[in-house]
Amino acid sequence: MSMRGILIEMKQIAFLSSFIFIIYACGNKETQLSDETFYMPAEWEPHDAIWLGWEKDSTYRFYPSIGKIITTLQPHVTVKIAFDSDSLKQTAIAKLIELGVDTTGIKMYVMPGERYWIRDHGAAFLVNEKGELGVADFSWDSYGLPGFLDLKYEGNKDSINSAWKRDLEKRLKTGSVDSLMAFAEGAKIIKTEVIHEGGAIEVNGKGTLILCEATVFQRNPTLTKERIESEFKRVLGVSNIIWMKEGLADDPHYFYRRISGDYVGGGTGGHTDEFVRFVNPTTILLAWVDEAEKDLDPISKMNYERMKENYQILKNAKDQDGKPFTIIKVPLPDLITQEVVIREELKKNGFTLDLSAEIFIPSEAVHVGDTLLRVPAASYFNYLVTNGLVLLPSYTAMGSSKEKEDAVREIFEQQFPGRKIVFFDVMMQNWRGGGIHCSTQQQPERISN
């Protein structure tokens, strides 16, 4: 099957998913409301809840940090967790209790297809002035999997088709989780053909959206920029879009990639929640590498060049009212690496950072026995803002500069006065290409007139 064939099939899957959901939601009166009044609030606005997902494979070692995140959130906001199955829900409850989490106040939902990174595939919540809740329902293709398969199998249609069909049912279910979340909350669904993940949405709540060309165009090769912009404006209620060029080098597209030389890693290919964030309607944080550090290693050099270009874009950008932004440069942590061995076969159980040779694309081939430097998606930008809190990742335990982390704390204390700033070690999530923000999704408070 050709790439075009896969994209057509994806659209058919998205249609079927929508049709299935309509059967469940046809009795929901909110589905009859007009789309035009909905918009996405900024993350610092009040929340009714924070959603999390739960990963079945405990070998990722996510659980301890999840427990700490939940207990930190609970005094401030309702916690909701979605699970792929009831049996997984029951084992999760037992694990949370073991971690010292009070589960009595947590709202739990069984949503087939749910996976850990709920921000990316889950509901992107919206509100309107009538006090109603909406959800922007983007299409889902597992982080641009078709494009990665084309590289991996060098255009071989049979191999691409075979790999695409693998786990197709699971992907279909995952693509419906946002609709299930909408149904659970009685929210209006606003669908779009645009393929996009929640970790790549950054809004100021007043009409401006930041996107990254590297991810948006990779996911939507058949759509024009004009079509993509019109859809984002329609479903997110924005009027102004700023386009970044590329994200961080240590957030390469898919798992796993040779970034430069012997440095390897995996990620999304440029999610905004790794390098650029609004902290208020007129102020933007941008990841930064100082000139004195840019030649320390190839990753720092790449990030320096990419963020320098993004800085120029932001300097020339205007908000929805035609006014310039204040841009604050935030240091990236010192580069973290781990020597790994390329193995023919990885352990089925237990934790390892070693990688398999067969998961790399031919043009970036590695060989069994190679020793490489694995790089995590480590960034202070994968943070969550909620009621009275800012949850940030910490890297001092991995050897990053305490002075840098203190500088980051100071920036956040200045930008979010009155909120408690809490740092967490989420390195296990970073090794898998994500962090705190990817692991959570805010449900905004409905506007009451």
Automatic annotation (TrEMBL):
Keyword presence, Ligase: no
InterPro entries found in the cross-reference section: Peptidyl-Arg-deiminase_porph
Highest taxon listed in the record's lineage: Bacteria
UniProt xrefs under SUPFAM superfamilies: Pentein (SSF55909)
Keyword Disulfide bond: no
Record's keyword terms, sorted: Hydrolase
Stretches that traverse the bilayer: none
One GO term (biological process): putrescine biosynthetic process
A Pfam family per the record: PAD_porph
Molecular function terms from GO: agmatine deiminase activity; protein-arginine deiminase activity
Alphabetical list of PANTHER family matching this protein: AGMATINE DEIMINASE-RELATED (PTHR31377)
Name the UniProt record assigns to this protein: Agmatine deiminase
